[in-house]
């Protein structure tokens, strides 16, 4: 028998990990619900036709396809047909309806769009939904990149109001505040501003080229970006326009004021600036002074995905060396892919795995998540065992998470278990305790031990 | 463009459905944690070798296999090899390591056993874990049977104490109590008692045959069972023994007392009876008088799965026409499949989908789960919009789940939205309200409308 293992790029989550992940999920869920967002869950499997062609050529290649079942049942009847399908599949990979018709969810956006189109008549628009589910990608596994990972998205479709952008900014800030994550910056920009730059350069058709070059500013500095812009066919005059834009300094109001001057000849650019101003004005009314994350207009922010058309957002945490922990923006016509035109949407995404890693590194998880239970009752057997069961019942009725060691084994072995479990308290219900109707409560950390009533035990354990 | 759809046997869960399902999951999670059980999550994908051969021939056939990616990358180099693998796959289905090496989780038990073996040195035994995740089976979809469905298991491995059985019985009763499910019967029996019957019949090797026949008592009555027992080679004397056993009547104590008489010549049978007595004795100490479900010794209870070896359990809800809503039992040596011998386990499973259906039919879900949010603020635009945003902030700070309609559209359209969303309250922040610093709160159900302060609104909404 070979040693069991799990597929590359997948993970088991231990009890402590599940509790910490639940803590993140619950914190986000509470905020989403407070903001009137509604939960949605879609199946792990989608029809292959729903997914293909939506994520680019590279994306299509990374979709996990599910082998049709019943292949072997068909083999007598359809061997020839199957073989011809197989040859076709070898030529044009994964397109065979006999071999594979289903695939694993690749992101939460396409299933959401598919859901909205299928249920357009039942839904109340604008539809605000959140979704927290795993997705699967056949990427090469590496540190921090998994083949099964969780996405957490909040989107509004069916409204063009910039109040939505403001609300999503608040959701970000409120979430990071409640999770205890400090040194967070929420960067905001507009695709229209980027389009405006391309207009000023005299090459509106090169907007994506400029975007891609600007996106690298962090990594290759202005010198590198200049070189890339030249290679991508931007004129010297154009490059100096870009330079002026990214050199805009000051607080958000000052930046937007300066941009208005630079952009005054670009209709699209001015539209982008006005949208940012409006979104920030709404945000000001909604934001809580307690939130300590920064909200910063960053004109070099580009976001890779093609489908964004308006305001875009990205979240960075400076406390650790880590890529962005969230991002999003406005997109027009996402549901158009499935035949429902003209529905504008805006959404943000939380990078759950990275947020987990940051919180772990900064030790932000509440301590009690590590062990779960509060106390172990030592099993001394016989009448003491029955006495312990009665105590166990009382503890649980009072909301104390408690276990009785189920087997009558040596004291040391039971204590070792409590230690390995990470429990803070042990209760010793022995002969003396039973006869007195009391309990000995031992604090596992301090070593202190006291004879107490059940109620006193409950009080002490609950206080911790 | 074809109309989008989802694969047969899978489901989208609407906001109201997600909330209700979360309600079940959270209720169970709270109880598991109270009993010191620890959460575990395993990946959706397992190595195919982990799963095959564990669920019988029929089970193997129903496992969803994942097509290896990178097939098309290999096609130039390995076309011949791929073709030969393909031919092999057509002969011996799904065994090809080039075509498929991964498969979707088929249940939670095998991944749990695999996890325990992989992490045996880190775990504190006895290990009490719960797990609530979807599983996938390529079964023919039909009413109440899905290809993606949720399992919820709680197991203890590494302890032979019958306290574990008693605890699991309490978890069942406590869960159904907290969910508000009445008319629930938890049936309990022992595989050893069934083995004892086979011994009494003089055919211990036919224990499974007797079990299978007895399992149908509900459906085909004693007459049908007799016929089936005859066909399966049980002697007339044997059949009369079986009849005596299943005719045992009375409360649990009376039944066990009568069984002791009948079984006195079977060592295994007596062991089964003693185990049931001990488990019930432990249960008595732990059980809460408030739980209204019945706990009933049922000697005709068989449970289909081969691997049970001790006490077995099944849960029925008489309030609706429905199969069992839970089941479980003790199994020896589950982890032996993966090379870790001699670890006894006992577990129970909750049928989440059926429990959901029963609760829906009996209207047991709290009403507020349907809509989520509490109140909609009507958007009158301009200054009123900014005023509304400030109110929105105050409502949320007070924990009231609230939305502002993001677009300035006709009053009727906004009211229609609130209605479709199922919201109970609407707030109208118009000119008069803004000038007075007040709000008009409208109860959507009663139609009643009142001018109030923000604090008064919060108080009324929270009271509901």
Summarize the SSE layout with pairings.
2 copies of one chain form a homodimer.
Chain A: H1 15-34, E1 38-39, E2 45-47, H2 48-51, H3 56-62, E3 65-66, H4 71-91, E4 102-104, H5 109-118, E5 127-136, E6 148-157, H6 163-179, E7 184-190, H7 191-200, H8 207-214, H9 217-231, H10 236-246, H11 252-263, H12 267-286, E8 294-297, E9 308-317, E10 326-331, E11 345-350, H13 352-361, E12 375-377, H14 382-397, E13 402-404, H15 411-421, E14 425-428, H16 431-436, E15 439-443, E16 449-452, H17 454-463
Parallel strand pairs in A: 1-5, 7-8, 12-13, 12-14
Antiparallel strand pairs in A: 2-4, 3-4, 5-6, 6-11, 7-9, 9-10, 10-11, 14-15, 15-16
Helix pairs in contact in A: 1-6, 6-12, 7-8, 7-12, 8-9, 11-12
Q: State the CATH superfamily name of the largest domain in chain A.
A: Bira Bifunctional Protein, Domain 2
C-alpha-based Rg of chain A, rounded:
29 Å
What is the overall number of helices of chain A? 17
CATH topology annotation of the largest domain in chain A? BirA Bifunctional Protein, domain 2
* Quaternary state of the chains: homodimer
Question: Major sheet of chain A, described briefly?
Answer: 8 strands, mixed
Strand order of the largest sheet of chain A: 1-5-6-11-10-9-7-8
Total number of strands of chain A: 16
Q: Can you give the helix content of chain A as a percent range? A: 40-55%
CATH class of the largest domain in chain A: Alpha Beta
Name the CATH architecture of the largest domain in chain A.
2-Layer Sandwich
Rough shape of chain A?
A: globular
The largest chain-to-chain contact, stated as pair and per-chain residue counts, equals:
A-B, 115 and 114 residues
Number of domains of chain A: 2
Strand content of chain A: 15-25%
Distance between the termini of chain A: 46 Å
What integer is the average pLDDT of chain A? 92
């Amino acid at each position: 028998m070979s040693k069991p293992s799990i597929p590359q790029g997948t993970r088991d989550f231990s009890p402590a990990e599940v509790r910490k992940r639940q803590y993140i999920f619950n914190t986000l869920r509470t905020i989403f619900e407070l903001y009137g967002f509604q939960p949605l869950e879609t199946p792990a499997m989608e029809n292959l036709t729903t997914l293909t062609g939506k994520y680019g050529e590279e994306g299509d290649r990374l979709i996990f396809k599910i082998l049709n079942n019943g292949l072997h049942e068909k083999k007598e009847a359809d061997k020839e047909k199957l073989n011809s399908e197989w040859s076709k599949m070898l030529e044009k990979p994964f397109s065979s309806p006999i071999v594979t018709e289903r695939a694993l969810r690749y992101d939460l956006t396409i299933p959401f769009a598919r859901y909205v189109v299928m249920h357009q008549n039942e839904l109340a628009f604008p539809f605000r939904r959140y979704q927290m589910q795993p997705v699967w990608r056949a990427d090469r596994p590496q540190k921090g990149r998994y083949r099964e990972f969780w996405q957490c998205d909040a989107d509004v479709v069916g409204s063009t109001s910039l109040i939505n952008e403001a609300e999503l900014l608040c959701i970000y800030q409120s979430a990071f505040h409640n999770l205890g994550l400090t040194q967070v910056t929420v960067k905001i920009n507009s695709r229209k501003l980027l389009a405006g730059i391309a207009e000023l350069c005299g090459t509106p058709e090169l907007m994506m080229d400029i975007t891609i070059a600007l996106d690298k500013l962090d990594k290759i500095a202005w010198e590198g970006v200049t070189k890339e812009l030249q290679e991508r066919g931007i004129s010297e005059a154009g490059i100096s326009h870009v330079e002026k834009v990214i050199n805009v300094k000051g607080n958000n109001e000052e930046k937007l004021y300066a941009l208005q001057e630079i952009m005054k000849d670009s209709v699209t650019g001015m539209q982008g600036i006005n949208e940012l101003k409006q979104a920030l004005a709404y945000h000001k009314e909604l934001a809580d002074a307690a939130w300590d994350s920064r909200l910063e207009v960053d004109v070099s922010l580009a976001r890779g995905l093609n489908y964004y058309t308006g305001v875009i957002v990205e979240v960075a945490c400076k406390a650790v060396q880590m890529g962005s922990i969230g991002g999003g923006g406005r997109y027009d016509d996402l549901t158009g892919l499935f035949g429902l035109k003209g529905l504008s949407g805006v959404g943000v995404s939380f990078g759950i795995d990275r947020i987990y890693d940051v919180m772990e590194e900064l030790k932000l998880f509440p301590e009690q998540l590590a062990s779960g239970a509060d106390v172990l009752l030592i099993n001394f057997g016989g009448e003491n065992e029955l006495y312990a069961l009665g105590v166990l019942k009382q503890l649980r009725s009072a909301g104390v998470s408690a276990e009785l060691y189920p087997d009558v084994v040596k004291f040391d072995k039971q204590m070792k278990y409590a230690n390995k479990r990470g429990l803070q308290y042990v209760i010793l219900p022995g002969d003396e305790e039973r006869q007195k109707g009391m309990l000995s409560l031992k604090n596992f950390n301090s070593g202190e031990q006291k004879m107490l009533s059940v109620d006193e035990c409950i009080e002490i354990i609950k206080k911790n």
